[in-house]
């Protein structure tokens, strides 16, 4: 596993194939980083499916309201958390392979709990979505996520934890 320099700002996401280690970027997007830690600590992401996975583009998850495995997933991707939406925290960081972007509606200030992980460099997203983390280990497990919009049998985040709490 990659060396974890800042356990308080590192997320460990357990997928079916193994762990994905994500370095959050609180210096770039403090509100988004804090929200992910808050939801991880509450167990809100545990069991949430990847509801939109587009080959050569990205894998989207994080709908804590409607995306729990075992539930009615027809609304997966339409919800967020009980917390208010976040203001955009755009930066000059590119949407490169392995970065985390905040999913949102047409309103730039509508990100909440959903996020996506880029499968490749998606420069056309630069400056339009908040980048607030990057995969530092386990990207092969992200690459193995079942594709589909939505996938017939979606993969899920088994658990999501802050490394400082593990």
Q: How would you sum up this structure, described in words?
A:
This protein has 166 residues and is mainly β. 10% of the residues lie in helices and 26% in strands. The chain is globular, with a radius of gyration of 14 Å. The model has no long low-confidence stretch (mean pLDDT 97). It is an enzyme of class 5 (isomerase). GO terms for molecular function: peptidyl-prolyl cis-trans isomerase activity. Belongs to the cyclophilin-type PPIase family. PPIases accelerate the folding of proteins. It catalyzes the cis-trans isomerization of proline imidic peptide bonds in oligopeptides.
Element layout with pairings:
Layout: E1 10-15, E2 18-24, H1 30-41, E3 48-49, E4 52-54, E5 58-61, E6 99-102, E7 115-118, E8 131-137, H2 139-143, E9 156-157, E10 159-162
């Amino acid at each position: 596993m990659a060396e974890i320099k800042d356990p308080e700002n590192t997320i460990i996401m357990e997928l079916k194939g193994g762990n994905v280690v994500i370095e959050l970027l609180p210096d770039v997007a403090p509100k988004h980083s804090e929200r992910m830690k808050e939801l991880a600590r509450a167990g809100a992401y545990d069991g949430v499916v990847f509801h939109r996975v587009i080959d050569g583009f990205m894998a989207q998850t994080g709908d804590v309201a409607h995306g729990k495995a075992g539930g009615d997933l027809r609304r997966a991707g339409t919800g967020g958390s009980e917390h208010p939406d976040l203001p955009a925290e755009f930066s000059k960081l590119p949407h490169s392979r392995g970065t985390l972007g905040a999913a949102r509606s047409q309103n730039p200030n509508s990100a909440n709990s959903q996020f996506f992980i880029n499968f490749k460099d998606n420069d056309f997203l630069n400056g339009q979505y908040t980048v607030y983390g990057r995969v530092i280990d386990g990207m092969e497990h992200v690459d193995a996520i079942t594709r589909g919009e939505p996938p017939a049998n979606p993969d899920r985040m088994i658990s999501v934890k802050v490394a400082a709490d593990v």
